[in-house]
Amino acid sequence: MFDFYFHLHLIVRLVLQSLAVILVLFPIAAACSMAERKISAWIQGRPGPNRTIAPIGGLLTPLGLVGRIPFLGPFLQQMGIFQLAADGGKFTFKEDPVPGHVNKFYFVLAPIISMIPALTTVVVVPVGAYFAVVDGVKVLKPIVLANVDIGLLAVFAVSSLGVYSVILAGWASNSKYAFLGGVRASAQLISYELSMTLSVLPVFLWINKPGGQGTLSLFDAVQFQSGVFHGFSLASLHGLWGVCYMPVSAFIFLVALFAETNRAPFDMPESESELVAGFHTEYGAFKWSLFFLAEYCHMIIGSAVCILLFFGGWNLLPWVPLATLIDWLSHFISFAGHPLFMGLVGIAIFLGKVFFFIFFFMWVRWTLPRFRYDQVMDLGWKKLLPLSIANLLFYTLGIALLQK
Amino acid sequence: MAVIQVERKPLTFAERTYIPQIIGGLKTTLKHFFAPTVTLQYPEERPEIPKGYRGVPTLVKDPHGREKCVSCQLCEFVCPPKAIRITPGEIPAESSSVHVEKGPQAFDIDMLRCIYCGLCQEVCPEEAIFLQNQFSMSGYTRAEMVNNKARLYELGGTLPDQHFKWDKKKAAEEHGNAH
Ligand code: SF4
Ligand code: SF4
User: Fold this and answer.
1) CATH assignment of B57-174?
2) ipTM here
3) How many CB pairs below 8 Å do chains A and B form together?
């Protein structure tokens, strides 16, 4: 079975792998939309969508039958799982009018472009690790579509393209609200991209020892946080997560991430109370749902990168890396050392952290009011940027002194 | 008038970073996140109607099952939006309460007009019309939204009576001191 897979042409294999990633990413992004509604509901003391159930008869019978299983069915109904299917169906089959006053080509192009960075960046994001035996030596290998050395750079480069779709949507819509949303989005993204990039520099300054081979790979960033406890020495620092010794970097990165993904309190491009719906005012049905999915994909990938850089990737706890956990588990479970099992455990831990981050995103959204536009600019240029520069200088000097 | 100078303390550094406030806010929302929801699952769960609630106006009978309305039409006159339409009638001779003489032949309340003001209940000399617990009226046609006499009695049911005015009157008549 595995042999058959490896005999396929490389292109075919890559296509299959990419499809697998998309098939995982999409449902998670869709589930996020339901999580968003449920979490907002619970925070506001409401139960959220809990009524929808699929009918028996017709295409949806399998779903309907699941809904009738005692205990499980009503639970899924309470959780709004069927609402998700109904929403999906609605977005797909709803009439999708193109307003007469828009620039049709770019209007249709914008939502498509919004998906491209969302789906491309996932290529370089490792999601787990496993031990592979190469030439008789056990080496830890990442589970990733493309383990490239420029990992982080690729993420930054491609994800910042996402703003083009927003600008394009805003401009092509030929509407004041959409246009303002697009302009705000571009200004905001440029302002926060700077601090974001400056905030991760210390991490890679720390990882890349002078004289060694330089890397920007996200896998190496996690490896750097996968040490074990050696007593109170500098070597023990390797087991700690990035957030422990670079809290300011992590904080700046997180704040910038909120701004980059256009989430509250930085949802300037959408700001419902001022701009109707911002850049997607004129969109509906399937095109709108693409924007929506792209936003959640951005959130997922943004939190994934944040976890890889600052929150230990697929390591369970500080000083308890995945390898240690697997060693420990193999005392109890015979097949724990199997690469497949290890990979799954790693992915599970990683996804768990991603889900927590997504929850955090939503939690913050329903806690903080939206900033005023000038406050956003103020925070970006006058607070975060100087802070990240100071942070960079501090760590540069510190690392220089430590490694001398 | 005395002018009170309120001393405004400058914000501390921690307050200016906004972070303690954010953490406080997150704590509050997390508390609500785990708190039970307050929503009433409406069609299955019904709200508890408080005492004295003024819902749909209804006609009531006295504990002996006698219809109390004497079709004096005071409610019809007082009703601000003219929602009530009464056709007065005589009480048939074979009825046990023939001495009441009048009763409504038809009694319609148009719930598309009614403003739930309660003036009909206020004005009724016979305590025959009450705004009771029913709070949701809906229908597919205009005709459905008009409550006729049968429906009004069905909604109203029986309420306790303190006076039994007409029974007393009958007893007095039989003793020969009717007035
Ligand atoms: S309900 Fe009362 S006020 Fe109205 S007609 Fe009957 S007795 Fe008169
Ligand atoms: S409640 Fe007011 S509006 Fe409704 S029937 Fe009675 S008097 Fe008329």
Assistant:
1) 3.30.70.3270
2) 0.72
3) 35
